[in-house]
DNA sequence: GTGAAAGCGCTAACAT
DNA sequence: ATGTTAGCGCTTTCAC
């Protein structure tokens, strides 16, 4: 590590000006050939790296973007991150990860990082803005792309999947197998993503003329243990379901775990459909039937949109909708008689 | 977003100097009371945030650290990250995530981020240095803490678990259940972590006087599908094992998945022990017997060590060894006759 | 306790 | 094609 050479050191050693060195190193095409090569060579030899603070201060850009999620601990976000990262790197940007844990203060902190020059733009996947009066106004024209979740009426560009449609497809699959008593464990309401998936469930049920009994729509929080608990409650009902559509895979794992403890066979006694297609879902036993999202693609699309905005492009009015796939595996079977 | 007020704006509005504003905002205790409060108030009112590039340039510190892993996609790292992050935040540092994908160029890039001022220190969890001649010398005195994996002879402080001891305990558990034909699916050799776990396996086998037949030590790469494939190969052997100690949970999931496909019961026909205790391991079916590491604690310990170094403390000579626990769950049972 | 002034390392406008 | 100069926004001596 030791000495950190600066542009001036290189310049002095070659008897040229600092400006020339800067130009040579930035491929500006403004430096002539005998000098150019010598500068590059010396820079490499001295192991020179430009100081980012100085450069960012001067250029007023950080060449970094912020990707903000609720919970870095959720493996779901990782493949999205990979998509974001690959696209960002290709454009010379680095990616900072932000983790809010649903804490409003931390949400604000990440928005602050935009204002203090830590990052030039943000991909927001928390599904909400900090609950502060007038907050939206203060960030309305910032370079922000909302992905995965939705923030209505904020005017930000969106990259999403059709949660409602995907949920409807999943429930229709269950209905097609002859199930009539189908329950839904949702995510936190009234968050839009949770509501959309629940709406898809309701739409499919209604279209098939099936009733949704009291207690068939317990509200969860996407966590494993909650799936377990809500499943138990479902089976304390006078008329328990024969199929459950769960709003995400993690809760679905909890549900299946609990069903097993209750001595019920999956899918013999109860069918289960999840949502997300985590990398473990296929190796789970039984392999989980679930809705698969193009995660890396979501990341790439969001980052591309953000790059457009940073380059001065306009913000797209219409959300980008990416397609989902229902992966039919081992946790769904015809309804028991 | 709009206007980004600077210190000068605040100063002018109050008729004080920029220096005073800077001092007031940094809690230096050098500004007297009538002024102090007014500055703070105006700063809040103007929604002021100091520009990080300018500050970092001036102070020559980024107040950020880099946590570099092989694969952000591995949920294993997430809880470590949480530990690192919590400790870092408390000390006023932010955490940048680095993802190498085992690519030497990317590894170098992250070291460069130390030199270009992006970060002040690094927590390295890749288990190796970039394979460049003289590389070690160039970073030998950088503020780097190695966690999880080990880099021998580099002189960096380490935060680790006793991989060999934990592996030996795991295998002894199997031996205690009466198993004699025990195979081990390892991680990539010759990486130290993989080798350590394999050594633990060998030590336990030898101590029990058990032979390790040819083909009983297939080498994997910690990935799900590899576990599947190597398991299949194991059962094409003339004398297949009755128990398998797998170097991580992800491969163990693959192994169990494959055993099921082969029509073998876990743990009735074959016992399996993993290593990591992922958050899904307990909900898996059968619940996985595995070695649990104190992940968040590893993150906290590593970050604390790094903070010490950044504060000018000495680098500890002896690695910090954190304790592991063998979680005995549902994938291990007495050996079949 | 506060202000004036210098300077962190870099890039960009202007000059030649 | 290269050099000179100024300045990004902040913190920190050094004065008073």
TrEMBL record, chains A, B:
Matches recorded under CDD domains: HTH_LacI, PBP1_LacI-like
Key words, A-Z: DNA-binding, Transcription, Transcription regulation
Annotated signal peptide: none
InterPro entries to which the protein is assigned, alphabetical: HTH_LacI, LacI/GalR-like_sensor, Lambda_DNA-bd_dom_sf, Peripla_BP_I
Domain HTH lacI-type: 5-59
Record keyword Protease present: no
PROSITE patterns attached to this UniProt entry: HTH_LACI_2 (PS50932)
Keyword field contains Ion transport: no
Alphabetized PANTHER family for the sequence: ALANINE RACEMASE, LACI-RELATED TRANSCRIPTIONAL REPRESSOR
Designated name of the protein: LacI family repressor for deo operon, udp, cdd, tsx, nupC, and nupG
Gene source species: Aminobacter niigataensis
